[in-house]
Amino acid sequence: MTEQTKITPEIVAEHGLTPEEYDLILESMGREPNLTELGIFSVMWSEHCSYKSSKLHLKTLPTEADWVICGPGENAGIIDIGDNQAAIFKMESHNHPSYIEPYQGAATGVGGILRDVFTMGARPVANMNALRFGMPDHPKMPHLISGVVAGIGGYGNCVGVPTVGGETDFDESYNGNILVNAMTVGIADSNKIFYSAAAGVGNPVVYVGSKTGRDGIHGATMASAEFTDDSEEKRPTVQVGDPFTEKLLIEACLELMASDAIVAIQDMGAAGLTSSSVEMASKGGVGFELNLDNVPQREENMTPYEMMLSESQERMLMVLKPGREDFAKAIFEKWDLDFAVIGEITDTGNLTLTFKGEVAADIPVAPLVDKSPEYDRPWNLDADKYEPLFAGDVDGVSDYNQALLKLIGGPNLSSRRWIWEQYDHMVMGDTLGDGRPGGDAALVRVHGTNKALAITTDCTPRYVQAHPIEGGKQAVAETWRNITATGGRPLAITNCLNFGNPERPEIMGQFVGAIQGMGAACKFLEYPVISGNVSLYNETNGKGIKPTPAIGGVGLLADASKRASVNFKREGDIVVLVGETEGHLGASLYLKELFGEERGTPAKVDLAAEKRNGNFVRSIIETGDIDTCHDISGGGLLVTLAEMAMASNMGANITLDGDHGTLFGEDQARYVMAVAADKLDDIQEAAQSTNIPFKVIGTVGGDNLVVTDKVNVAVSDLKNAHESFFPEYFSKHD
Amino acid sequence: MKARVHVTLKAGVLDPQGKAIRHSLGSLGFDGVEKVRQGKYIELDLAETDKDKAMAAVDEMCRKLLANTVIENYSIELD
Amino acid sequence: MKSAVIVFPASNCDRDMAVALEKIFGEKPAMVWHGEATIPDVDFIALPGGFSYGDYLRSGAMAARSPVMAEVIKRANDGVSVFGVCNGFQVLTESGLLPGALMRNAGLKFICKDAYLKVENNQTRFTNKYEAGEVVRYPVAHHDGNYFADADTLKALEENNQVVYRYVDAEGNATPEANINGSQNNIAGIINKAGNVLGMMPHPERLIEHDLGGDDGRALFESAIAALANA
């Protein structure tokens, strides 16, 4: 053994393991581990890798449908999109690294999620991101916002995968713990998908990509520990991304994948060589023997412990068919990437590491994965603690024009142009023009076909905080609705569950409630979860974030020529409201942004109404009879109308009875459509025959958005307010 | 032998990054900074032991790749 | 029309360029790896956008020194059409085929958006299908597009009508606000003196069909076909 360090209780604690977990390790090993072995256990049993607090509940989520090719458990989930093609996608968090070093943290988050997708044989075709920042006036935010955005752009732009959309929110609860969730969608041939289960005793284990340095050692344990003020001391552990190498790695892997040389492949994500080798061996029920002397190293005198725990980026581990090493090596050499045979598959069931002629670690693989702790943490959920609020329960506004301008010009609803103009959202030549950022869902054509993927990310943490179950439901339903509003058929979701410290029952209660809500929505909408990620301990000094189960939804437009977008297309089109409006103002943006209040319970999600209304809207888009549709979400009906007007530079004349509840209420399952006058009767009849709430509310035209006697504001004024938040913010803080 | 190459923007070429650095320094309270010009520093480990030959080689490297002489100047130190 | 697309390590608009060329020229272009010493016999060589060598050192610097560039320079000197977009433009200036240099955007940020451009010279083999002074909309997507040349070079470019595209507003005015990256004289694209090498930051190949948001870029490639037919 190369490391003779005696394992003390202090060392065990430094590795984030409890004494009970250490006893389990002793039992699995049948002896005391050495430091390298302890390090391997610590990363495999970290919250990040083992899901020990969450898996009990995650198991309850629906993961199957006829079109699901591969659900959770692999690098990413896979769905069938017809014609022997599959969409492969996943979302993942990089919250803590991004708070410490926003550019590199966000960049490597993008790099990691890209690898999860192309390791399965897919060419990545779209990136998305869900970002949550603290209050704009928090002194750290300008640096964090500009760093994260530049990092996402810097990585995605260089690898040449378009960043087509996402969401950005601001809330006080993220002041000390921002959230950076990145999602990648890729496309592969259904019969050319690669998995991670290793097979074939004697087959070579191959390392490709960048060399290994001392990057991010302890990253996986850092991601599973609460922040304290001295976390900033951990700065040197943050990894640096190299998108140039990633681009070469994508091309080299896809080139090799076109052959039949690969048995199994896995990217080295958090906990690098450890998690990739353990997971591949475990899934295949085999052992791995690795000679660490052959690991390409960037730094001198690296120890087995450091090599196994390094989080150096842009690396992959593969098992090749015997005799195909030279063939594969030639491809990686062409792309100037390291290629090293570092070991072989054994029948021992152990992960055996040798270094300088000695055994550096010898661990049975099965317990590393199967015996990892699983906790049923106590939880406390009081979902119905708040009442619904309607117009009579909250203050009204005297000036609707000003209220609207303030909402759409505020941090949470203002134009995100400043962000998405820093992302190449068009490279690869398939981002449909009206599916560029700013719509309900991004639309990315499946290359060489007339199909398109509709992609969106959504979550309303206000709702989840106020009512975890309804909030969980709503996050799923909103992605479903956003895809539907473009004409897409929602197929499946990925999720990134960002919560506080699960050891606190009220936080665990939020988690359990949100999972219940998500599960109910996924099940009812036949919209399974196929991949995901959990990020817990998002707290600073004991203060948790708002529960943020970010959902990434993917849908399919079988014929992308029949699609809808949010901008009004023609003067004279009839504006129609689909769905029921009761005027729910609980947990609304109206309350938060105009009155600084967060109270009440959010509008209930009626899943049956969601499905009915959504299926109706989609069926009309699919016939080609409408091309203008927008779902109603945060800010309510008036904001939706304003967004449609701003996107088209066209006003509308709307007649509506009602008050601030009608205009700003956040009732679910609603859409606004604009219908050509000559199509109205047919569409209305179709709605009535299926009992869809369908209401003509006005006409497109003019330079102003007018709503009865309450609102009358020039579209150009709306746009000025909408577009000015970010530019003004950064002109003050740059 | 070690070569240290400094690549800087020519006088007269606008340096927006330098300008931004100066602005940021100002907002951190460093008021006395009148001008910032940023550049690159490149360190080369050379097998060559003859100083003149090394200088000639690095000079050629600078002209051919390390600096863009349309906009940049370079200087070389050897030790 | 026969064409070739040069592929450097981390070129990433090579496929977009190839799709556009195939659609408009009617023939698949040859994809030529940067390590090749030869290029097939073609009439049109495209240097695509991307981040060759990660934009490390300087954008386009290392690609400009790759083996294939000796052949590109030779073909350019023989009069073959050479067209560099974005990173391709950076490679052309770094290789000396076009004068000047492309520096970090004045706003320091990467910019991806549609930009209005004025076709300042429609008497070239790349722009003969545009009207003189026509305002077109092409997307830009770059971090280093801020065109710089010394005063003498600029003067010569202007006097010889080598400035082919300029950043303008929707009405065609070359205002400072329209100058998205701080380029001297709002320069977006220039041609060499011989008239066969065009470099530009904006991406005409990205807007060649309505589904993608417009087709203003098509006429550039159609111009090349027309020029070859009339040659």
Overview of the molecule:
Chain A is built from 25 helices and 27 strands. Chain A has a seven-stranded mixed sheet. Chain A is an alpha+beta fold and 734 residues long. Chain B is an alpha+beta fold. Chain B starts with a strand and ends with a strand. Chain C has one domain (3-229): Rossmann fold, CATH 3.40.50.880. With 231 residues, chain C is α/β, with parallel strands linked by helices. Chain C has helices at 14-25, 61-64, 67-77, 87-94, 151-159, 218-230; strands spanning 3-7, 30-33, 44-47, 81-85, 101-103, 111-119, 135-142, 146-148, 163-168, 187-191, 197-200. Chain C is globular, with a radius of gyration of 16 Å. In chain C, the strands form two sheets. Chain C has a nine-stranded mixed sheet with strand order 2-1-3-4-11-10-9-6-7, sandwiched between helices. In chain C, strands 5-8 form a two-stranded antiparallel sheet. Chain C contains six helices and eleven strands. Chains in contact: A-C, B-C. Chain A binds chain C through residues 150, 153-154, 157-160, 242-245, 247-248, 335-336, 420-434, 436, 445, 560-561, and chain C through 9-10, 12-13, 15-16, 19-20, 49-51, 53-56, 109-113, 139, 141, 143, 203, 205-206, 210-214.
Summarize this, please?
The complex is a heterotrimer of chains A (734), B (79) and C (231). With 734 residues, chain A is α+β, with helices and mostly antiparallel strands. Chain A is 35% helix and 22% strand.
Task: Write a concise keyword list for the protein shown above.
heterotrimer, B: 79 residues, alpha+beta, Mth169, Chain: A, 2 helices, 3 strands, 35% helix, elongated, C: 231 residues, alpha/beta, Rossmann fold, nine-stranded mixed beta sheet, two-stranded antiparallel ribbon, 11 strands, 24% strand
